[in-house]
Give the backbone structure.
Amino acid sequence: MSLLRIDKIAKNFGGLRALDNVSFELRSGEILAVIGPNGAGKTTLFNILTGFIKPDTGAALFQNQSLLGLKPHRICQRGLVRTFQIVKPFLELSVLENVIVAAFNRLRNPKDAAQKAEEVITFVGLADKRRALANELNLPNRKRLELARALATDPTLLMLDEVMAGINPTETDNLIGLIREIHRGGKTILLIEHVMRGVMALSQRILVLNFGKKIAEGVPGEVVKNPLVVEAYLGEEYCVASR
Amino acid sequence: MKRLYLFLGVIFLVLLALPGVLNNYWMEIFILIFFYAYLGQCWNILTGYTGNISLGHALYVGIGGYTATRLAMVFGLSPWVGMLVGGLFATGVGLVIGFLGFRFGLRGVYFVLITISFAEIGRLIALHLESLGSFMGLFIDFNPGFLNMQFRGNLPYYYISLGLLVFSLIVVRTLELSKTGRYLVAIREDEEAAESLGVNTFKYKMVAIGLSAFMTALGGAFDANRIFHLSPDRVMSMALSIEIILRPIIGGMGTVLGPVVGSFLITLPAEWTRAYLSEVGRPGLHMVIYGFVLIFAVFFFPRGIMPLLNRKLGRFFIKE
């Protein structure tokens, strides 16, 4: 069953075509990675799906209901939540308070929200930092906090925008393990990622964007061998040379 | 936390008994301390917790005062009821201001400008409407009695202002622990992140400005029936708006006790400065001094006194 269906989404920023009739489907329970060079339109796609910007044309259906025109908070309440590439913690609040805000998405009672937040914090491995202010955390921990907040909203679909960027390989492996566990817990995941180690380890399917166009889609092993993809990432000359 | 509540309880009891040993002048000073702490707390809800800076809170004080007074003069309505009507009226005006600002996502300086311009509009309306006494203002006839909220001597005003302050403390503390309060702080910290985590930022900012305006207007009605006079330059002026924000900024914005601490610290010196400078024929110069105090405070205590107190005394009062 398709959880999310994107149909011919297009978006122009002035003269720049950020997304050019992109279509794809995401099945329930799947991990799909969206990759592509800088400026390929990945984050624009996320911003459209989460209601931060409106597409020029196209449709986006989540659980067979249109997402377009909804405010971001409504989309979150529907069960689609995102993290930000540049993490946006509530800096002056403690880790616990950060996550409590998110937990209120599904819960009304402060006690329930606090309990849910504690569980999620323990799950992502920040239990010993729960009283620390978010601005005291280092980048890997801020990424975990970003993840914890997204999880605490109790989403159906989790969209992760470069959670592995800027952290070291050990931390990356830890995060991969964590995301696997989230997936096993029944969440569908849409990844934007540059770190190929993460993409290859996690994704069941990969979608490649370049200059706003979908240039390839398929299982990881095939996609990375696709000449168009190699060209997009490494340049035309590399492709010619390796032939 | 228990120790802190106990400590505050003891202070409250002391304040309840204090009028026994205060002369009239000091009673007046304490009323001002409570009153400005209360107004600062109301402002704190919008600015300290939600992060939208208002420099026009005098507008709501004025609306509360004028509404309650006019209703009392024309219909003989008790100010106790009038203050609630004024509060609702102020809420309406606050929601209009909020709607205009928040719908277009105005933040920072641009929101400040909206609040200033609306306060100016309010002042000009009061200044030119004959029914509001225009520039002479309204003089309230003295008919002492509980129903009229008018009393001989300062003692009842002392308890009413203390009551208002305690009421605001309870409201803000309850808010702080509630879903709404958590959402407000999240909006202050990062609006986009809050929105993406399911916070209807527009709605909650409207709640904040509505509540803040309502409570501020209650203070205005109280003030009118204590001074027995309302004039645009006193209750709707920029000077009052600045007076309101001074205490929470110095005490610590976004904290329950900040406005109270700030008020206890600076009300007395501020009052002395104002009175002295008026006496020596330099009225208004106190605003210049306020300006310097504010610059000094923001420079050395950007978050006010509360973080300092938390570091020094927090461990004693709040055990985890």
Observations:
- The beta strands of chain B are 138-139, 229-230.
- The first helix of chain B runs from residue 2 to 17.
- Chain B touches chain A at residues 177-179, 182-183, 185-186, 189-190, 192-201, 254, 320 (CB under 8 Å).
